[in-house]
């Protein structure tokens, strides 16, 4: 996954962002909606820039559809 950042949203929910070129937040630092947390890159062995994104509840992956809907 290369450079990865994991956000803890509470309630057991985590979001993971991998293959970053740079990370702009440190462990324990708070983030808010709209904050830039990293820049997409090709870390982790990718041939081109890409973003790995995943939502988990505990150890189980969760479909992120409900968080990605337009309002």
Strand and helix map with partners:
Elements: E1 3-10, E2 13-23, E3 38-40, E4 52-57, E5 60-62, H1 65-68
Antiparallel strand pairs: 1-2, 2-3, 2-4, 4-5
Could you give a quick summary of the protein structure above?
By secondary structure, the chain is mainly beta.
Verbal overview:
The protein is mainly beta. Strands 1, 2, 3, 4 and 5 form a five-stranded antiparallel β-sheet that branches. The protein is globular.
Please write the string of helix (H) and strand (E) elements.
EEEEEH
Provide the residue-averaged pLDDT: 92
Low-confidence stretches: none
The proportion of strand residues reads: 35-45%
**Terminal residue distance:** 31 Å
Number of strands: 5
Q: How would a crystallographer describe the biggest sheet?
A: 5 strands, antiparallel
- Gyration radius (Cα, Å) is 13 Å
Counting DSSP H or I runs of 4 or more residues, the number of helices is 1
Helix/strand/pairing class, anyone?
mainly beta
């Amino acid at each position: 996954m290369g450079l990865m950042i994991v956000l803890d949203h509470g309630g057991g929910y985590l979001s993971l962002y991998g293959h970053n070129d740079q990370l702009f937040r440190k462990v324990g630092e708070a983030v808010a909606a709209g904050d830039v947390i990293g820049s997409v890159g090709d870390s982790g062995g990718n041939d081109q820039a890409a973003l790995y994104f995943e939502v988990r509840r505990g150890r189980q992956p969760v479909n992120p559809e409900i968080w990605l809907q337009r309002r």
